[in-house]
Amino acid sequence: MNGGFHIVVCGSIVPDPLQTLAPMEGATGPALKNEMMLPSVLDPWAGHSLYEAANLAKKVPGSKVWLVSLGPKAKLQQLMMSIAQKVAFELVVLDGPASGFTDSTEVAAALAGAIGSIPGLDRSRLLLFGGCASASRDAGVTMQMIGEQLGLTEQFLGVDELTVTENGALRVLERIEGGQYQVSECSAAPAVLAWATGNLPEPPNNPQIGMVNMRTIMPALQKAQTAAVGTGGISYQAVELPSQRRETRIVKDMPADDIAAEIVAWLKG
Q1: Domain residues for 147?
Q2: Which pTM value belongs to this model?
Q3: Which tens digits make up the pLDDT trace of 64-121?
Q4: What angle do CA 182, 188, 192 make, to 5 degrees?
Q5: Which of left, alpha, beta for 114 (phi over 0: left; psi -120 to 50: alpha)?
Q6: What is d(CA 217, CA 92) in angstroms, rounded to the nearest whole number?
Q7: Neighbours of 121 (CB within 10 A)
Q8: Is residue 217 part of a domain?
Q9: In whole angstroms, what is the distance from residue 72 CA to residue 93 CA?
């Protein structure tokens, strides 16, 4: 392909999944207890899309990768110290909440505005990457709404594989029901690709890449614009952890058919 792709990846921070999350009512609505103190990681689905973007940029000369993140810039700065050593990208930051209680419509509008203002971005070569879901904002609709606001109507969800053919077309492998894949072909960019798990492992740390990235990451964090993202028109009556329920009964020498029948009866009940 002549000129390569302009690949924009949408991804932000989420609490480390090993932490216990306790919802609470904050001053502006639902929040996580001690959210700013919780260790954070890059959203797993966004991580897959970032690694796939970097891999594609290596294969197609002239390509460039941007990472657009909406989250508290202090937390993003901590995260970038490690992510910056994985792959080469240019960071675009919006300073705002990364809570799972934010409205997807407002999040999409803020991200679309940030992407539209990236200097030198060629929309005719744009590939918009992101996760098909999120470990915090798991509405599953954010990428579609961003694409619509940017005028990108070619959208592929649950992507596991992307191949660029010799004539520059995009061959996309999407997950569908029943453990099967749908194979689609898009003649050219622009397009939206919401990634599932992809095929690539997490890249090893490369301090040289990290040093190059940090030259642009720190200025991007310093000039981050505040994003007024909230819960929109959503109201929460209550937020609480799901209750744990365990019913155990030890029975010896019970036939398998009887066990199965008892399980079915319990599920129906």
Answers
A1: 6-226
A2: 0.79
A3: 999 998 888 888 888 888 888 989 999 998 888 777 777 788 888 888 999 998 998 8
A4: 60
A5: alpha
A6: 8
A7: 15
A8: yes
A9: 9
